[in-house]
Amino acid sequence: MAKAKKGAQARGNYSNLHQLLILKLEALYDVERELVKVLPKLAKNATSDELREAFEMHLEETEIHVERLEEAMDLLDVEPRAEKVEGIRGIAEDGSWVIKNIRDDAARDAALIAAAQYAEHFEIAGYGSAREWARLMGHTEVEELLSKTLEEEEAANEKLTELAEGGINERANADQEQEEAEVM
Question: Does domain 17-183 fall into CATH 1.20.1260.10?
Fold first, then answer.
């Protein structure tokens, strides 16, 4: 059987959950490929070694996420293609804004975590929906692939929270308190 070249088939005319699942996979494929471009910039601009390592580790995972999505689409007999998602571009722009505009190292690290968590929450929502749809339709192998990635996205979000609460936010706040004391 030849793979469907148009992915979710009738573009703009989605009439069933199977087509929506394919569309969601194509959207997640775009999201992950965009993050493969963004994560190195976040890592380069993080001043905390732990934060930089977290971004680098998640980049490696994100590359695997791209491969899993390709495998999931293959299982559904669809050519991998990306459906452009403007939301991830806005989230990526938020990270770029942080890099460009926040000069204090500690404050920038805190803001990079917040920007990265926007992306994680965006991905968690997408993977959760896609996994449920795959489960409902009996696409067990696709569901398993999506579950693995969802677990990794949730773990990445938790790691960012741990870093923020484990000292990065406090350092940013201490810098602020020091600046206020110097002004007085």
Answer: yes
